[in-house]
Amino acid sequence: MVASGARKAAIIGGGVIGGGWAARFALMGWNVRIHDTDRDAERRINAILGRARASMPGLWDVALPDEGKISFHDDLAEAVEGAEWIQESVPERLDLKHEVYAAIQSACTETAIIGSSSSGFRPSELAEGAARPGQIVVAHPFNPVYLIPLVEIVTGPGTGEARIERIRSTLRDIGAHPLFLRREIDAHIADRLLAAVWREALWLVSDGVADTAEIDDAIRYGFGLRWAQMGLFETYRIAGGEAGMRQLLTRLGASPNLPWSKLTDMPELTDELVETIASQSDAQSGRHSTAELEQIRDANLVSILRGLKTRDWGAGRLLNATDRRIDGAPKGLDALSLTGPLPTGARAVPLDWSDINGHMTEHRYLQAFGDATDRFLGLVGCDAEYIACGHSYFTAETHIRHLAEIRAGALIEIDTQLLLAEGRRMQVFHRMWESSRLVATAEHMLVHVDLGSRRAVAPPADLKERLDKVAAAHAHLPRPEGAGAAVGRPLERKAETDAGPEAG
Ligand SMILES: NC(=O)c1ccc[n+]([C@@H]2O[C@H](COP(=O)([O-])OP(=O)(O)OC[C@H]3O[C@@H](n4cnc5c(N)ncnc54)[C@H](O)[C@@H]3O)[C@@H](O)[C@H]2O)c1
């Protein structure tokens, strides 16, 4: 389904980066219009969109807005018409970018933000000769744009506070992390850091110290893991011991302070060095196509990001904040009709929930259903605050049925019927849907416990009252198909066989 009142973005230049922007905007519910001078751009963007649909929505534990409409336009003016955000991602050539801004500004509204993906140019260079220079800012993303949250923002004197606020809120809206530079500088922050590492890596190959695979291992088995979660300064602060950063900076012989670097000299990219690096890279990674490497990269990034999410740290903290912001689910019974099963979950299947068979693996069903139980308990008032006061429900028994395959990126929705709420016991029945297709069910018996004595006790009167209200309403619902089933045979057949041995 496409959101008709969706906000509009235009992407000018739909290559690796423009395609990634298109995916991020569209999957966050924006309608996206794309203009590219190359006829093959649509095919390439569709491939990027396919990877993004499988990987991006599952970063969050709640459902994203309905995907926006994506359209391709030969005419640049048609693409930018009515767009709130226009992202230029044409090749890194200043004359070409100037030409494109002139065309954009003659057709877009004055209030639209024009972001440039430029990796190196300053906004003052980009806006040279522009009709409205303050409208153009650097919005520098990282590949793949649909998974990496950082966008470096470089504004100019004409940007203005109101526009800065809109840039901040728009990027937050699409789940990105805007990092505003204090002043403009060639290649912004991240690419300058990367340039330093790249330069040293080229020297290491050029001097025959290491090959490309060894350099990549030095990063991915080592400091790359630290950088992804703490960056550079926080990591080194720990290296300084209890006295922290001051100790590290002043300690004689502390490794970061030694003059090991080749300073600013780049090795000359002679034919020989190019050949050495390219053939080492072929030996290292040539068995994988670029498309395979992109899939591997996306799956690894999703695992890392979701891991950081459980730690509520770094990029994981941003994902959690976005979950809270976009979660539109009701928080209590008052906002719900009790005449049907209660909505207790809506989310995309994360890429790291897939198994070797290419579908959602068993234990993730329990995770999704467990989250639905938590959501149901929250609705009846057994939430974090209630648990902190000393009572909770423990799950005593679970029966899951896997009825149909579900793949990464699919939107799953769960609803919950209360089958029993008597004394200390509560029995719930969850159904998991992909669109109108029932893909799994789960039945759980839960027991109310006193967290001090760890023993089963009856729930207090106010919780019991809310449960009774749901139970009374749900008593009118038909018993769900599959409720009370034993493994391998539904309850009805079990009842028959309990009565006597099956004939034959
Ligand atoms: N590749 C990266 O990792 C990366 C990362 C961050 C930023 N960037 C920046 O993003 C920008 C685009 O880089 P890319 O890697 O996506 O390049 P790309 O070559 O993959 O894509 C550029 C696209 O622009 C199209 N194009 C060329 N002229 C055009 C025109 N006049 N109008 C409309 N479309 C036109 C091309 O057909 C192509 O599809 C550059 O400024 C680059 O510095 C790149």
Automatic annotation (TrEMBL):
SUPFAM superfamilies: 6-phosphogluconate dehydrogenase C-terminal domain-like, NAD(P)-binding Rossmann-fold domains, Thioesterase/thiol ester dehydrase-isomerase. Residues 475-504 are annotated as: Disordered. The keyword Ribosomal protein does not apply. Coiled coil: none annotated. It comes from the Bacteria. Residues 8-181 form the 3-hydroxyacyl-CoA dehydrogenase NAD binding domain. GO terms for biological process: fatty acid metabolic process. One of its GO terms (molecular function) is (3S)-3-hydroxyacyl-CoA dehydrogenase (NAD+) activity. Its EC number is 1.1.1.35. Keywords: Oxidoreductase. Residues 189-255 form the 3-hydroxyacyl-CoA dehydrogenase C-terminal domain. PANTHER family: 3-HYDROXYACYL-COA DEHYDROGENASE FAMILY PROTEIN, 3-HYDROXYBUTYRYL-COA DEHYDROGENASE. This is 3-hydroxyacyl-CoA dehydrogenase.
